[in-house]
Design a protein that fits this description.
2 copies of one chain form a homodimer.
Chain A lengths: L1 E5 L3 E7 L2 E8 L1 H9 L4 E9 L8 H5 L3 E8 L5 E5 L8 E6 L19 E4 L4 H10 L5 E5 L2 H6 L1 H8 L4 E5 H8 L4 H9 L5 E5 L5 E5 L2 E5 L13 H14 L6 H18 L6 H5 L2 H13 L7
Helix pairs in contact in A: 1-8, 3-5, 6-7, 8-9, 9-11
Chain lengths: 302, 302
């Protein structure tokens, strides 16, 4: 069993009330791979420029992440710069330099098409579709997206949504895509396009999942200090799919466990800047916090 | 066992994306009493003007609510007017006419001081303190407040917080009172003033409780249409305290059950305008939705 992730590798400059870090490791594929590799084998497809410090990815290699799909292209690496104020649920993007990412075309090295799970991180839905088409045999497929594609490439995005098992979005993105304030109505609209499940990210409030079995809700871990929310959603997806990939069966039970595990991993991610927490994360720490999550939602019958 | 609630009885004019209702029954004491009386005996202290249609409260009388503490004063009843847009977590107050509420002084009829539980709804903390002093023997005391008192009567509010077992606030109010964006730090600051527990209301995201046993989180019920959020917090408090009042013991287990029951009752409240849903609510409907709440947070060990 293994997962293919297609997304970005970036150099992020992030400012929060807890500090500022300049041109540190980031990108959706990196956060996802760092999280998923704690559970299963991961293959990564992305692009960096010739300026990228490749040694930064050694910790992924050490965890067995297959980086053959990482293209090094002439030019500068994708850069993103953002600020979070005290309301850490709101991202203020200060600057986006696509650089080599502007001409990115995913190429799947040998063996990549045979994965059991596919995660299409938040990239152009046309590219997502290209990759999806090359991995027809995956047992489980999931995609993320963002307001930029919802507004600019609605038709391509709608086609793409129809081609995956699970869609994940922030709640504001779901509301924008579905044109309703109701998450229930929005999730139904997405599921009518084909997906089995919709996983809605709610930042400091956790995540909810809608599928044919109904509704499941997971709180966020109560952190005294959220130092850097960057990568929360991608590491959530990494924990979620990483766990499911190595499950014998995908059932209501394992889907719920996966949501909690995604929340657990994301809660570590946001406690430190960049990939710092994910580098040091271990299965034992994850299991311990998973139990805490169960404890603080547990309520007995009346 | 019985509860004393001190708060407002109002005529509300409310506009939401689902409609507008003019001068309908409202007020913190009414929402609280309607909810709590589904669980235990309730005694109410409040004031209305001579213009108030007293027959509107017959449903409370039918549920055994003791209305001897409802003063009828010369003048007009308290009126509140507000609007909610699609973000139903944000209240836009359009008009507040205190009227007879401006000169309100709670008077406790015979037997009122012997209650086992006291709820001080969102009124002037000086009045809350007057009432608190007259009910020294209550097993459990809880108070609500709002930004108006946090900004205008901080000292009185702080003294009052030190005199109750449980404080409930909206998350924005807690952040304002404690001067921190962290709910953990904010709850700790409140508990350092004396209360055993802090219950933080998060609107469509549910509620969280901090006490010496740690942290407990309850989601909100996923409603497709929230027609009128007015009274959500007070009916939450009514379900919460109503259940606890008739529990033999207040334990971590019963506190958690009470949080879920409060959320259940509030979820009915916001599904209809004014008191409409609370009038028709039954213990059987509450038990059924309680079980749903347990179901959609249930997750197995890994």
């Amino acid at each position: 069993m293994s997962i293919l992730v297609v997304g970005s590798v970036a150099l992020d400059t992030v400012e929060t009330p807890f500090g500022k870090e300049t041109e540190v490791l980031g990108g959706s594929a990196v956060y996802f791979a760092a999280a998923a590799s704690l559970f299963t084998d991961v293959k990564l497809v992305a692009v960096v420029g010739t300026d990228f410090p490749l040694g930064e990815l050694d910790f992924l290699r050490d965890r067995g992440v297959d980086l053959r799909g990482l293209q090094v292209a002439e030019g500068r690496t994708f850069r993103w710069s953002g600020r979070y104020d005290y309301d850490l649920n709101v991202t203020h993007t200060l600057d986006t330099q696509l650089n080599v990412f502007a001409d990115f075309h995913p190429v799947l090295p040998e063996g990549y098409a045979d994965v059991s799970t596919l995660f299409l991180a938040n990239i152009d839905p046309t590219l997502q579709y290209e990759v999806r088409s090359q991995v027809p045999g995956a047992r489980l497929t999931m995609m993320d997206t963002m307001n930029f594609w919802i507004q600019g490439q609605r038709d391509e995005l709608t086609r793409m949504i129809g081609a995956v098992d699970i869609v994940t979005m922030n709640e504001s993105e779901l509301r924008m895509f579905a044109g309703t304030s109701s998450l229930i109505a929005g999730a139904r609209k997405v599921r009518e396009l084909g997906p089995q499940a919709v996983v809605i990210k709610q930042g400091e409030y956790g995540a909810v999942m809608f599928d044919r079995h109904g509704y499941f809700t997971a709180p966020a871990y109560p952190l005294e200090e959220v130092r850097d929310p960057t990568g929360a959603g991608d590491s959530f997806a990494g924990g979620f799919l990483g766990y499911l990939d190595q499950c014998g069966e995908i059932t209501p039970k394992t889907l719920r466990q996966a949501i909690i595990l995604g929340s657990v991993v994301a809660s570590f991610t946001v406690g430190e800047f960049s990939l710092r927490a994910l580098r040091d994360l271990t299965p034992a720490k994850i299991r311990e916090r998973y139990q805490e999550f169960r404890d603080f939602t547990l309520v007995e019958a009346i």
